[in-house]
Design a protein that fits this description.
The protein contains ten helices and 15 strands. Helix 4 links the parallel strand 9 and strand 10.
């Protein structure tokens, strides 16, 4: 089973209008509510890949009930820990430029956290867990490291797409995938990354510190994969950007799904870039048909360093 962990899920309320004017009354042309959160996005794309997945995390109140129902309607298995507080609502504005209003989220009680942790103690070798998103302030800052320790004891592999501090804490526990973008990679080493070639030695340091595969996304300029076998680049297929929300989560889902299906890291990388692009070119998360249509236009090339 591929599990995803979303510690601070949300209802994402999308509103579409031609132009957003701050301080003015804005007329919304279209509105939509969806189950939101990075891990939830990963699970939804995995299901579109026809790969079984189960979503974990915390849900509370009527907003939590909405999210659970939406996922189950899409065929995603769920085992969320119920909480006392209400799950948050975020507002995503699609206008002449994209804007987001993200709520802080609920306070998690100690017994609620213990209930979630017990779930990882039942997992088995061959399972995969995807940690996606930041750790809420009401939870221990080293929570991912704690969970990763439990998973290592059970020979369960895990992937990480989170903030700088939480990602660095789990590196010694050997995640099979981490996915910073080039800006985040630069923040880790206090440099400005301006090219894939420049990113390679810094990504190699993350491999030396424990990561099995490091994928660095460069938005419209493709992505970079670095592991112990080498460094590889992939182009972004041609298309029109209509939605950047969820593209990074889709990239993670593409890599994890391909890995679970037995593909090599290079081929998993190819599918990852295709999947991320397919979501960026869609108004929602990509479908398998979107991926199949674009995959022929994505090429992986080994980066030969001078």
């Amino acid at each position: 089973m591929i599990y995803t962990l979303t510690l601070n899920p949300s209802i994402d309320y999308y509103v579409t209008l031609p132009v957003f004017e701050a301080g003015q009354v804005n007329r919304v042309e279209q509105a939509e509510k969806v189950a939101g959160g990075k891990g939830i996005n990963v699970s939804l794309v995995l299901k579109n890949y026809e790969v079984e997945t189960q979503a974990l995390g915390f849900l509370g109140g009527s907003t939590g009930q909405f999210i659970r129902a939406e996922l189950e309607k899409r065929g995603v298995l769920t085992d969320f820990t119920p909480i006392q507080d209400e799950t948050r609502i975020n507002v995503k504005i699609r206008a002449d430029q994209e804007s987001e209003l993200n709520a802080a989220g609920p306070k998690i009680q100690p017994e609620e956290l213990e209930h979630l942790l017990s779930r990882f103690k039942t997992m088995q070798a061959g399972d995969i867990v995807v940690f996606a998103g930041s750790i809420p302030s009401s939870l221990p800052h080293d929570l991912y490291r704690h969970i990763a320790t439990i998973l290592n004891e059970r020979n369960v592999r895990f992937a990480v797409d989170t903030t700088k501090e939480a990602m660095l804490e789990v590196l010694p526990l050997s995640p099979f995938l981490i996915k910073p973008n080039h800006h985040e990679l630069g923040e880790i080493f206090d440099v400005e990354i301006t090219s894939k070639e420049m990113a390679v030695p810094y990504a190699q340091q993350l491999v030396e510190r424990g990561a099995e595969n490091v994928v660095i996304s460069f938005a419209g300029d493709g992505a970079l994969l670095v592991n112990r076998q080498g460094a590889y680049t992939a182009n972004t297929p041609a298309g029109k950007l209509v939605n950047s929300v969820g593209a990074g989560d889709s990239l993670v889902a593409g890599f994890v799904a391909s890995h679970a299906l037995g593909k090599s890291p290079e081929e998993a990388f190819r599918y990852a870039v295709t999947t991320g692009s397919a979501s960026a070119y869609s108004f929602g998360l990509c479908t398998k048909e979107d991926i199949d249509r674009l995959i022929k236009d994505v090429n992986v090339v080994e980066l030969i360093q001078s």
